[in-house]
Amino acid sequence: MEEMASNITKSSSRRPNWTEREKLVLAEAVRLRDDRLFGKMRGPGGIKNSKVKEQAWEEVAKAVNAVSETVQRSTEEVRKQYANIKQRAKEKSDAMRRPSTGGGPKPPSPTPVELKMLNSMEDRPTLCGLSSGYDTEEVILGIIPSTCAFTNNEENCTENFENTSQTLYATSVQPVTYPTGSSSTVTKRRKTMKDEEILTLRAEREKYLEEVKKLKEESDYYKVKTMYLKMQMSQMKKVAEQ
């Protein structure tokens, strides 16, 4: 009985799954507060900036709760959901970039929310390690190393999200001016998109050739079987004539 009561308690305390609308609002709310959430927090202003960051996450949670129809999300839930979406988006992107070996199921396609996140991450200079249990990223000016070291200092990276809707939020947001992408960034983005299209076309071509090969084998099999049946019918006809 105690075990059954414990299971009922766990079941009743389980939080409802996130809806697609909540995720879209989350992505947009984070994008609008990008500079406060993922800006550098070093030097004398580190403590003050940390408070600004916490306040920004509270605003994100408030924006999500404004459209939530089932439950009120905490700041901790909002941060974890954001980290989970970003991780899944990266995993799906990596799986789609790997060359196809001709076997196994096709990698799952990113959801609309994940796709927006991937598009916004294409021109990001570099990635950093984990900070306080959350995957963070930071823009490094000057010479950018090929990899980032894991440190004990809090390092955050700028993340930009595509606009999804301008009518999702009732919370007040300070206007933010975002830098315009340089021509080299645009060229890099186009090259990345072209590479992805090439990989997709190659995978489709390999799949097509595999299907053609299979159909040819089936065609050859039926040709041989037809010849065999004709020979049998010819022999049966000769026997009948005798």
TrEMBL record:
Coiled coil: 198-225
Positions of the UniProt region annotated as Disordered: 85-115
Swiss-Prot/TrEMBL keywords: Coiled coil
Biased composition (Basic and acidic residues): 88-97
Domain Myb-like, first and last residues per copy: 10-86
Recorded GO CC terms: nucleus
One Pfam family here: Myb_DNA-bind_5
InterPro entries recorded: Myb_DNA-bind_5 (IPR028002), SANT/Myb (IPR001005)
UniProt xrefs under PANTHER family: AGAP001331-PA-RELATED, REGULATORY PROTEIN ZESTE
Protein name: Uncharacterized protein LOC111122395
Originating species: Crassostrea virginica
